[in-house]
Amino acid sequence: MTPVADVYGRSLRNLRLSVTDRCNLRCGYCMPEEEYAWLPRDQILHFEEISTLVDVFLGLGVDKVRLTGGEPLLRRNLPELVRQLAGKPGLRDLALTTNGVLLVEHARALKEAGLHRLTVSLDTLRPERFPPLTRRPAETHAQVLAGIAAAPAAGFVVTKLDTVVIRGVNDDELADLIEFGRSVPAEVRFIEYMDVGGATRWSMDQVVSRAEILGVLGRRYGAIEPIVEPGSTAPAERFRLPDGTTFGIIASTTAPFCRSCDRSRLTADGMWYLCLYAVDGVDLLGPLRRGATVDELRALITGGWRRRADRGAEERLASRDRGPLIQIGQLKRDPHLEMHTRGG
Ligand code: SAM
Question: By C-alpha distance, which of 228, 167, 197 is closest to 316?
Fold first, then answer.
C-alpha cells in the first residue's frame, strides 16, 4: 500500500494514541500545576471507538502505534485495549510510554495482551531529586525503579528509558543513567527540553543540547560513534560508546526532525493533531459518534494529512526571543494545547 503523503511528501505512518489526559506525576516541565481543566469524561473515546479509528489509520498506511497520555496506565483495563489492537493485521509495532509508577502491577498483563515494546520515562536516579521534579514522594521513585525492573522480568526485551535533560536539574546524571540502562538492560535516550504546551517554565538556557550531551559522554567514555540507520524516521539519533553500549538523543529543540516526521497524535477525546506544536486539530470523535462511515472517516483523515504543512519545531527554532509556547491562561481555557493531553 502506498501511504498517504503530506505537502512535503512525508508519509502517514506513526500514530501516538493518548488514552487519558490524567497523570499521577506533576513534572515541572510538563504539568507544573496540581489542578487542570480535564477533558470531559463522556467525551473520552471508548475502546471500541479507538479500535475503529485505528482500523481506519491502519488502512491508510499507519503501521506503528504508541499508547501514551497523560499516564496511560491510569486508563482502566488498558491491557484489554492492547489485546484489541495487538491482533490487528498491518500493525507492525505497538508500544507504550509510561512513567513506570504503576508498571509493577501491569507489566505482565500488558505483555500477555500482546504489547511489543515499552518505554519508561526516568529523569533521575536519585530519590531525593524525585519530589522536586515530580511533586510526588521519594517512595514513588522506588516504585518507578521497581517498574523498570519488572519490564524484563515480564518478557519485554527492548525497553527504552527516556530522560528529559534539564540544566542544573539532572544534567550531572548522564553517565549514571547510561550505567543504569546497561544494568536493566535498556537503551537510554536523552531528550532535549522542549518548549511544548505545558512547559510554562521553559527557557532556552535550561536546554542541554545534543552537542553538549555528546561532549560530556565523550569526555567520560572516549570516542562516540554515530549509528547510521538509513531511511530511519525515528526521532532519536543513536550512538555507540567504545564498549558497544548504545544510547539515543532526541534533539527536538536544537536539531528538529520535522523533515522526516511521520507522526500524528490522537487525544483521548478524539482530536487528531498533525504536529506536537499545532494549535488546531481535526475532530474525529464528533463524526464517529454521529455515525460517520469508514469511508467518511478515511476521507477526513486523508484530506487532513494531504494538507499537512506543519514544521512546528523548525519554526520554533527560527523564532527570536524564544520562550514558553503557550501561556498558562490559554492552557487553562483549552486543555488540548497541553503536552499531557496530546501525549509526548
Ligand atoms: N506519562 C507517560 C510518561 O511519563 O512517559 C507518557 C506521557 S509523557 C507526556 C511522554 C513523554 O513526554 C515523557 O517522556 C516526557 O518526559 C516527555 N515530555 C513531557 N514534557 C516535555 C518537555 N517539555 N520536553 C521534552 N519532553 C517532554
Answer: 197
How do residues 278-329 score in pLDDT, each as one tens digit?
989 999 999 999 999 999 999 999 999 999 998 989 988 888 777 787 777 7
- Beta pairing partners, 5: 11
- Sheet with 225-226, side-by-side order of all strands: 225-226, 237-240, 246-250, 187-192, 160-165, 117-121, 93-98, 64-68, 14-18, 263-266, 271-273, 282-283
How many A from CA of 192 to the centre of ligand 1?
11
CA atoms within 13 A on the CB side of 302: 14
CA-to-CA distance for 342 and 336, rounded, in angstroms? 7
Output the ligand 1 site: residues, CB below 6 A: 23, 29-30, 68-69, 71, 97-99, 121, 162, 164, 191, 193-194, 196, 199, 339-340, 343-344
> pLDDT digit string (tens) for 71-115?
999 999 999 999 999 999 999 999 999 999 999 999 999 999 999
Q: Which residues contact 144 (CB under 8 A, 6 or more apart)?
A: 99, 100, 101, 103, 120, 122, 130
| Model confidence at 190: pLDDT above 80 | yes
